[in-house]
Design a protein that fits this description.
The protein is an alpha/beta fold and 389 residues long. It contains 15 helices and ten strands. It has two domains: 318 residues, TIM Barrel, CATH 3.20.20; 60 residues, no CATH class.
């Protein structure tokens, strides 16, 4: 492989223990790869050149681990981080796998389950802070319904708000350097999940007690499952100052959550996402929340991880070529040209400006007849991605 596409620490490429450690089982088949220890997965990620490793609490420490087992696992994990130089920039809590969460965690109808979810999350936050995490992600995998009659959705929203307010206070009280990032998904494993899109969370965040502490963690596959344009969700989060983290993978639209290698399905969408992140100077982790195909052994898992990072870097180079392509940039300049004739109407409202705008005569027919050359622009992008420009 060309050195040009090899990951470097400044790229901040991260993977979760649950991604490279996924043994390849699914609803129709058993595991095809052996389970590796968290420390072994750190060494694997160090071998492929990743920057960091992220984890759910129970990816690292099994939910039934004894204190002695916990200490042993954590010691080996810290030794692996030190040996490889990998960071642990993000952590999260598994609030979806254990049967206690079968009807939700923070939004369960049962107050005892809601309290246990807070208990578990506080312990997991402590673990994340101990390992240096600065972003804490919340994915409400069981926060939803199959039966509308069973839950009051307004109560569910309030329960979720109460939990986040409580945990923000906990983080402040402990003095942790942590921000929260909320991850949306439309469905799966529940029939319908509360807060199905990134936009839903952006609206919700402003109702919190400490909105400055809370942002979003958009995921490619989750927005694509809803048939949406992922880059637009990311742009909205960025414009709001709320893009605290991002999950990169790929997905065939309107399917189950496939979590494919980044760029495996929708290269043009992946290109514009990479271009956006690089153009705006996003400085956070580029986290690959994806899984190797079930066909692979652990050498194939390494191929998968290298492929995620390599595709990102290739598309980053393509974005630079886009910016340097004289024909593309000339066409964009023409498309966005402004002759200054509307300058008097720009800016904040005034009564005089409104009156002048109402009185202005527009060439509606001429404006509607103008060709915009989007076909040509899109073809130039295709040729750039196909490698002939």
């Amino acid at each position: 492989m060309s050195d040009q596409y090899q990951p470097q620490p400044e790229h901040k490429f991260t993977f979760g223990l649950w991604t490279v450690g996924n043994p390849g089982g699914d609803a129709f088949g058993e595991d095809v790869r052996p389970q590796l220890s968290p420390a072994d997965l750190v060494y694997l990620l160090g071998e492929v050149g990743a920057y960091g490793v992220n984890f759910h609490d129970n990816d690292l420490i099994p939910i039934n681990a004894t204190p002695a087992e916990r200490a042993s696992i954590l010691k080996a994990f810290k030794q692996a981080l030190a040996a490889t130089g990998l960071k642990a920039p993000m952590a999260t809590t598994n609030l979806f796998a254990d049967p206690v969460f079968k009807d939700g965690a923070f939004t369960s109808n049962d107050a005892r389950v809601r309290a246990y979810a807070l208990h578990k999350t506080m312990h997991a936050i402590d673990l994340g802070a101990e390992l240096g995490a600065e972003v804490y992600v919340f994915w409400g995998g069981r926060e939803g319904i199959e039966v509308d009659a069973a839950k009051d959705p307004v109560a569910g929203i309030r329960y979720f708000r109460d939990a986040l307010n409580f945990l923000c206070e906990y983080v402040k009280d402990q003095g942790y350097n942590l921000k929260f990032a909320l991850e949306a998904k439309p469905n799966e494993p529940r029939g319908d999940l509360f807060f199905p899109t990134t936009g839903a969370y952006l609206g919700f965040i402003n109702t919190l007690q400490y909105p400055e502490m809370v942002g979003v963690n958009p995921e490619v596959a989750h927005e694509h499952m809803a048939g949406l344009n992922f880059m637009h969700a990311v742009a909205q989060a960025w414009e709001a100052g709320k893009l605290f983290h991002i999950d990169l993978n790929d997905q065939n639209y309107a399917r189950f959550d496939q979590d494919w290698r980044f760029g495996a399905q929708n290269l043009k969408q992946a290109f514009f996402l990479v271009k956006f992140l690089e153009d705006v100077g996003y400085a956070g982790s580029r986290h690959f929340d994806a899984h190797a195909f079930r066909t692979e052994d652990y050498e194939g898992v390494k191929d998968f991880a290298r492929g995620c990072m390599r595709t990102y870097l290739i598309l980053k180079e393509k974005a630079a070529r886009f910016a340097a392509d004289a024909e593309i940039q000339g066409l964009l300049a023409e498309i966005h040209a402004d002759d200054g004739s509307m300058d008097a109407f720009k800016g904040a409202y005034t009564a005089a400006k409104a009156a002048a705008l109402k009185a202005h005569t527009f060439d509606r027919i001429g404006l509607g007849a103008r060709g915009l050359q989007y076909e040509k622009l899109d073809q130039l992008v295709n040729e750039l991605l196909l490698g002939v420009r």
